[in-house]
Amino acid sequence: MNPLKWDSSWTAHASVELCVKAQLQPMIDRHYIGKWPGVVVLKLGLIVAGDVLGAIVYALPPRETSIRYGGTTWELARLWIDDSVPRNAETWLIARSVRHIKRFFPEVKCLVSYADPGAGHVGTIYLAANWQRDGMTDQERKTPRFDLRDSNGKVYSRRSHVPRESKTERVPRVSKHRFVLRLK
């Protein structure tokens, strides 16, 4: 996709910049969830040679999350980088986004994100970025939660994510790995 010659100095020619929704829409479309999170608070793009090759989007999590972590908490809700970008770019992008948040949003005390085993994610990029494991989702629940699976096998966590014409069945939800980064 990108004709750049990648070498170990690629980050010297890359930047992380505020973006508008339209700039990141192609990346959100290719993300495994394929939709924007609910309440977006920060949209950043990975810019290399004038091209947007990655997206990182922060959103407001449920209110209970800020209570759990003792202050304003944002969720790293979407992360996508073009396959042409070298390995470790995800960790580099996360680090630059954290730097941006610390500088421009000092009220944010904590960041949280989730790795979905159902999508083959285990959280390696969060550990590489010095985030801490914080258990699994739903581990404190007394009743099980369910996802929706369509006839093609695609799993949706919310009814609003399911295309209107799709028929679905309820399947037990796979708990996600939770990771946290305390900023203060």
Explain this structure to me?
The strands form 2 sheets. A 7-stranded mixed β-sheet has the order 1-2-3-4-5-10-6, with helices on both faces. Strands 8-7-9 form a 3-stranded antiparallel β-sheet, with no helix packed on it. By secondary structure, it is of the alpha+beta class. The protein starts with 13 loop residues before the first strand and ends with a strand. The longest helix is centred in the middle third of the chain and has 16 residues, at 89-104. It is 21% helix and 33% strand. The protein has a single domain, classed as Aminopeptidase, CATH 3.40.630. It is built from 4 helices and 10 strands, in the order βαββαβαβαβββββ. A hairpin with a 4-residue loop joins β7 and β8. It has helices at residues 21-30, 63-69, 89-104, 124-128; strands spanning 14-18, 40-48, 51-59, 73-81, 110-115, 132-136, 146-150, 155-156, 168-172, 177-182.
CATH topology call: Aminopeptidase
CATH hierarchy: architecture: 3-Layer(aba) Sandwich
**Count of discrete domains:** 1
Order of helices and strands: EHEEHEHEHEEEEE
| Count of discrete alpha- or pi-helical segments spanning 4 or more residues | 4
* Low-confidence regions: none
Number of strands: 10
What is the CATH first-level class name?
Answer: Alpha Beta
Question: What is the 3D shape?
Answer: globular
CATH level-4 homologous superfamily: Gcn5-related N-acetyltransferase (GNAT)
Q: Biggest sheet, open or closed, and with what strands and sense? A: 7 strands, mixed
Name the helicity range. Answer: 10-25%
**What is the structural class?**
alpha+beta
